[in-house]
Amino acid sequence: MTLITTAFGFSSTAAEVARGIDLSGRRAIVTGGASGIGVETARALAGIGAEVTLAVRDVRAGARVAAEITESTGNAAVRVVGLDLADRSSVAAFAADWVGPLHLLVNNAGVMACPRTYTPQGWELQFATNHLGHFAVATGLRGALAAGASSVGEVRIVSVSSSGHQLSPVIFDDLHFAFRPYDPWLAYGQSKTANVLFAVEATRRWAGEGIVANAVMPGAIYTNLQRHIGGKESGAALPAEQFKSTRQGAATSVLLATSPRLQGIGGRYFVDCNETETVDSRGDTLAGVARYALDPANAARLWEVSEQLVG
User: Fold this and answer.
1) Which among 118, 188, 222, 269 is annotated as catalytic?
2) Distance (Å, rounded) from C-alpha 102 to C-alpha 81?
């Protein structure tokens, strides 16, 4: 299989990859759109005409961001809806309240390396938020996505993963650290592997309806995601040139959401606006995508387990 390459790279910004594309009449959801790369993803989509819904836990913060995006883009069709991915009732209400077609779903929100925490269902918080919540949103909105595809030919889901997926495969026999000692980084890695596997299986199941999904590694960016590990100080071991701005960090998500180059492409993993190689062992830089994260059998099993969990 030939890797997908583009003219963009590490330093490209969300606005640059979106330039020349018209999303007028398209409707998009960006989870976690009130902070970090979610803001710049939403801004880029709004800037080329999309109606954008910021699905956020903090509605007041979302409203401030929506107003700022409208001011900077001139697009008044930026709305805010509450969504707590770790709360089953919030996810169900969000999906039930959506009316009409959907053309882009950017599963961007997430938590990283947080202390050991469980939802009322007994789910480990990172797996619950990063994977199960987004899984429930996407499956709950399948009808809206299919409706969008019937009108425009293809709709897209962007699953924001991380190079941290190489820290752990999905451990099916102990998803919630009931037997293993809890390790925040292993929990994070497992959830990010799940993000890639979701894209693989969603594409296999739904491509016939015109719904495709791809996964993305946005890069190293200083955002609220690092709040559990010391913020900017957490990046001291990395050279400054390896960090991106939030506008650069949003570029690969926006590329996957909008580029004609990605027409009909799904179940793949992109870094710096290009598909990356598959690797069988972890290197010092966590480059590439682990083979287990693209494995069709793992993806199908995770889907079945996720369906059982979220009901």
Assistant:
1) 188
2) 15
Residue at 1 is within a domain: no
Would you call 192 helix, strand, or coil by DSSP?
helix
Strands 104-107 and 27-31: parallel
Q: Is residue 305 part of a domain?
A: yes
Range of the domain at 248: 14-310
Tell me if residue 292 is catalytic.
no
Say how far apart CA 304 and CA 301 lie, in whole Å.
Answer: 5
CATH number at residue 186: 3.40.50.720
Q: Which percentage of the chain shows pLDDT scores above 70?
A: 94
Q: Is 214 inside any structural domain?
A: yes
Residue 146 burial by Cβ neighbours in a 10 Å radius (0-12, 13-18, 19+): middle
Does residue 98 lie within any of the structural domains?
yes
Running DSSP on this structure, what letter comes out for residue 171? -
Which amino acid, one-letter code, is at 157?
I
**Residue 233: is its pLDDT beyond 70?**
no
Q: What is the dihedral of CA 32, 35, 36, 42, to 10 degrees?
A: 70
- As for how many domains the chain has, the answer is 1
**Residue 232 pLDDT > 90:** no
Q: Name the amino acid, one letter, at 227.
A: R
Tell me the residue type at 173: D
Q: Tens digits of per-residue pLDDT, 248-283?
A: 999 999 999 999 999 999 999 999 999 999 999 987
Instruction: Report the C-alpha gap between 24 and 21 in whole angstroms.
Output: 9
User: DSSP assignment of 210-265, as one string?
Assistant: TEEEEEEE--EE-SGGGGGTTGGGGGTTS-GGGEE-HHHHTHHHHHHHH-GGGTT-
